[in-house]
Design goal:
The chain has five helices and three strands. A three-stranded mixed beta sheet has the order 1-3-2. Helix 2 packs across helix 4. It is globular, with a radius of gyration of 22 Å. The N terminus is likely disordered.
Length: 146
């Protein structure tokens, strides 16, 4: 009987966030501060806004396109370097690789606007490859101020 009681206590302890009797963990920022935005959140929001923009511009062409995000490309790098994205035209899938896009970029100014522009340009170039169009034709009004 005592043995069964220990197992149930151990299983409760492993799933509970109440460690060492200190109470359940809260977020790092606390209840009154806004949650910090991570690199993953920023990357996902950049891709989501670029995809939404492209779906508005090209509703028929983008109707059945699926976007995925992976950390790194599978396998060894090709002779041309590390892939930033992969396009499967037959299945209408675009896979963007977060780590190569973020880490292999050589931005002249490392701020949020330049990082967002880099991520969006990767989305635009991948979609251009999927649709068989020139990347500048995909989003002609996006960078009108250049």
């Amino acid at each position: 009987m005592a043995r069964i009681g220990r197992r149930s206590t151990a299983s409760l302890r492993s799933t509970s966030r109440d460690r060492h009797g200190r109470g359940i963990r809260s977020s790092v920022t606390g209840p009154h501060l806004r949650r910090q935005r991570t690199r993953l959140d920023f990357f996902d929001s950049c891709i989501a806004s670029a995809v939404e923009y492209l779906r508005d511009l090209w509703p028929d062409e983008m109707a059945k396109v699926r976007f995925e995000v992976a950390a790194v490309p599978p396998g060894e790098p090709s002779k041309h370097g590390v892939d930033r994205w992969r396009v499967d035209v037959a299945r209408r899938i675009v896979v963007l690789y977060r780590v190569p896009i973020e880490r292999l970029a050589h931005l002249h100014k490392d701020d949020e606007w330049h990082r967002r522009s880099l991520i969006e340009s990767c989305v635009f170039r991948a979609v251009a490859e999927l649709l068989g169009k020139d990347p500048w034709d995909i989003a002609p009004e996006r960078y009108r101020h250049f």
